[in-house]
Request: fold
Amino acid sequence: IKIMMRQKERDTSRLKKYTQSLTPSELEICELILADKNIPEISAITGKSISNVTSTRSHIRSKLNLKKDENLKDSLIKITRKN
Reply:
């Protein structure tokens, strides 16, 4: 569990460095996406509506300058795994 917690902290830190414009709510959604959670699961975990989660994902994509054909999870993995 300690290893997983350290990895989560590193991921969050790298996301913050990559784009300082992500809000705490957006960072939480990113963490859940990286934890392989889908939109309904994220909605249940956060207590937010599916439309709110979808909207937040859209804001994240915009802030990360992703194209429509770029996968959000894959992009987050690339960001968090950079040295």
